[in-house]
Structure formats: structure tokens, C-alpha cells
Specification:
- The protein is mainly beta and 205 residues long.
- The chain has two domains: 87 residues, Immunoglobulins (Immunoglobulin-like, Sandwich), CATH 2.60.40.10; 82 residues, Macroglobulin (MG2) domain (Immunoglobulin-like, Sandwich), CATH 2.60.40.1930.
- It is built from no helices and 18 strands.
């Protein structure tokens, strides 16, 4: 490094540390793992990395040849670790891998793409009188997606907008409207996914 002030120059030696680009540090211990290790398209998985260059941006995140790098880009911390989540895109079923590159250091780990779990809903209790509150639980729906419709018979019973979580699940309380006694179809629609179950109304006058 050379500094010049006026007509006077002086040279000094400066050593860069902690950089994979300049110092030649070997990050061969870098690794990633995915949780869960098997997921269906539309599911969200968590990727943990360790042993990478510190304070580096994730420059490449590829799943089965498809770019899944989140925005904004995740980055490593001082210990060279990072954590991020990705949404599984539409891919062929079977075994594939996740590849990550940070500052010239890369790592990969296997993952299995499985079939989506069929959407389903349950009601607890399974029968109730008009005016009572029941709990509806859904699973297997698209993640982070609002419930479009919730109907009992022909009546819209969704009390307020409610989204699914990262796993495509939801739980919501619903007030049973005035209905004749007997079995009625309960239909839940989330995005373009719908499913039904039967609910029994009792105690109507």
C-alpha cells in the first residue's frame, strides 16, 4: 500500500485476513442441511449452512437445477453460518440436491421431492347446535395463502380473512348458523385447492 502526500510517498505492507477472495483461506468444511429432508412442491423448507466465509452473500441457491435464491439474498454471519427458507417449486418427484455458493465456496445436500399431501379439513366437535362455535383445522393447502371460501351448505361462514402457515395448515373458529338438523357439507377453498367434509347440525327447533 502506497500513500502520497504532496511530493512525498511512503510504502507499507498491509495484510488482509478473513477474506476468501484475498487470503486464500480454505473453507472445505462448509456444509448445508435441509429440514425437512423430504418435501412436496409448494412446501417450505429451511436451509442451514455453516463453515462458509463470514459476512458473505449467498450468491447461488439452486434446487434440482432451478434457481430458488430468495430476495433479499441471505448472508452469513461472523461465524460463517446462515439460515434461510425456500419454497419448493414444481419439480419432478424423486431425489435431487440443493446447491449453495458463497464467495467461491460451495456445498450441497440431498433432498427428496415427494407428492403433495392431499388437502383435508376436520371439525371439532363433529356436531353442534346453531349458535355454538366449532374449530376447523385444515392441512395440505398451499402455504402462506388466504382462505378464499369456507361454506357450510350454501352459507359463507368464514368469520375473517385467515392465511395458511408455512406448512399449508390453518386453524379457525367458526360460529354455526341457523340450519336444519342433519348432515351438511363443509367446503374449504384456499387458492385453487378445495376439499370437503361432513358436519352434523343438531338441536335446531
Amino acid at each position: 500500500m502506497v500513500a502520497t502526500v504532496g511530493g512525498t510517498s511512503i510504502a507499507a505492507t498491509f495484510t488482509v485476513t478473513g477474506s476468501t477472495y484475498l487470503s486464500g483461506i480454505d473453507y472445505s468444511a462448509a456444509s448445508i442441511h435441509v429440514e425437512p429432508v423430504s418435501a412436496a412442491p409448494g412446501a417450505v423448507v429451511t436451509i442451514n449452512g455453516s463453515g462458509f466465509p463470514p459476512f458473505g452473500l449467498v450468491q447461488q441457491l439452486v434446487l434440482g437445477g432451478t434457481d430458488v435464491l430468495p430476495v433479499p439474498q441471505p448472508h452469513t454471519y461472523s461465524a460463517g453460518n446462515f439460515i434461510t427458507q425456500i419454497l419448493i417449486p414444481q419439480l419432478g418427484l424423486g431425489n435431487t440436491q440443493v446447491d449453495v455458493a458463497i464467495g467461491g465456496t460451495s456445498a450441497s445436500t440431498p433432498i427428496t421431492i415427494g407428492s403433495a399431501i392431499p388437502a383435508s379439513i376436520t371439525v371439532e366437535p363433529q356436531s353442534a347446535e346453531p349458535g355454538q362455535v366449532v374449530t376447523i383445522t385444515g392441512s395440505g393447502f398451499p402455504p402462506f395463502t388466504s382462505i378464499e371460501s369456507l361454506t357450510l351448505g350454501t352459507v359463507f361462514v368464514l368469520p375473517y380473512p385467515w392465511p395458511t402457515n408455512a406448512f399449508g395448515d390453518f386453524t379457525i373458529d367458526v360460529l354455526i348458523p341457523l340450519f336444519p338438523n342433519g348432515d351438511h357439507e363443509l367446503v374449504a377453498t384456499v387458492g385453487v385447492t378445495s376439499t370437503t367434509t361432513t358436519f352434523t347440525v343438531t338441536g335446531s327447533p
